């Protein structure tokens, strides 16, 4: 990289940065310190509506051990070099592998990819951050272990550690990923290592089975934060059930979302339906395999008439509920009768499983795979819906109440329509909460459309917050704005923790709006 192209970390002199790079090369080897433009190109790709020049790293570091990470952060403290940590770098929709700001050094942990332990008796795993879902899945299959994973939708190339740390979700009964995490190894900003939960006991046999340990529980501090670098994580895996029945329920009217949620909520809370259910809108269900231009070539939001044609052609509903039953065949038959009775009461629902569901047009095949811990990349098809490489996931939370869900749906459609974008969305139902995931798809090659997408996303954040709806995740472009919606007292606590744990502010500055 020539001198004119060189980007330095903010506040770091060229002399100090050269000294830091030399130290990094001593720690991990020259081949694992990337500084050339072509080497750094993979870390500059973004799908969000920000200026790409705001997300260019000054270097990338590829360690392979916890000890190397310790030495790297000690060097960063000495030279005040900020690092931005990624695991597999496949956090698509939320920022991908780019740094939080130009000049930061990427700490890329994808080479730390060892499966350290899988215990089929207590159904646990201990992993490094570079392990992908596909790698763990293959390990389980190769060793004939009767265990299931819980991957997110576009999952094979992503990793359990990074997804859990960002509090991602999946679709089996283990769908709330952080709930099923147990024990971490964390490198702090001063280079020290701590093990959370029972991990502080030497030779502990219960590190991956008892979450709480002794004293204050701190694992949550290292999720969606920049207080430390997680180098090992324990997970609970689901034992393979004796029987499994995925099913599909379709509703045809937009207002039916209210009934769906109110019928579903007690079934989820009572664990009649034990998995993380998704309620998928027409455009998300069709968008994984249908091109928008085949139904509408306008630049504004897609009209109702086109949506109705998609529904008719594809055999899908306005709302498409994907859920599953697990257990013995006898348990499944009992619970199936309860589901049929609950959703059949109004006469609006079409309830299907097996061959009947497989013949419908939407995503039953890949949803069925996800709900049993298998994976595929079909959901990446959404990026072809509008084309142009732009995607931002807007993800507010609501109660699992029909009135709130209808309110969120109408508000989102109103704001998206104002800016000319489509409502490509789904609800993911937890036990009592719902994640409303909206994929704001746009053409990043069009500067005017990119600006509209940026303005639209910003308005979505503000208007949803005014009605009491906060986001559970966001991309790096909007972390500061989202953090602001949660109030200054909470942000002051975050800052206080940051200053205590990372006084030089070297770890992922700006992550979740947290700075020293």
TrEMBL record:
SUPFAM superfamilies membership: FAD-binding/transporter-associated domain-like, FAD-linked oxidases, C-terminal domain
Domain FAD-binding PCMH-type: 48-240
Protein's name according to its UniProt entry: 4-cresol dehydrogenase (Hydroxylating)
InterPro entries: Cytok_DH_C_sf (IPR016170), FAD-bd_oxidored_4_C (IPR004113), FAD-bd_PCMH (IPR016166), FAD-bd_PCMH-like_sf (IPR036318), FAD-bd_PCMH_sub1 (IPR016167), FAD-bd_PCMH_sub2 (IPR016169), FAD-linked_Oxase-like_C (IPR016164), Oxid_FAD_bind_N (IPR006094)
Gene Ontology BP annotations: lactate catabolic process
An MF annotation (GO) of this entry: D-lactate dehydrogenase (cytochrome) activity
Pfam families assigned: FAD-oxidase_C (PF02913), FAD_binding_4 (PF01565)
Listed cofactors: FAD
Keywords linked to the UniProt accession: FAD, Flavoprotein, Oxidoreductase
Xref: PANTHER family: ARYL-ALCOHOL OXIDASE VANILLYL-ALCOHOL OXIDASE (AFU_ORTHOLOGUE AFUA_3G09500)-RELATED (PTHR11748:SF114), D-LACTATE DEHYDROGENASE (PTHR11748)
Natural source organism: Halomonas korlensis
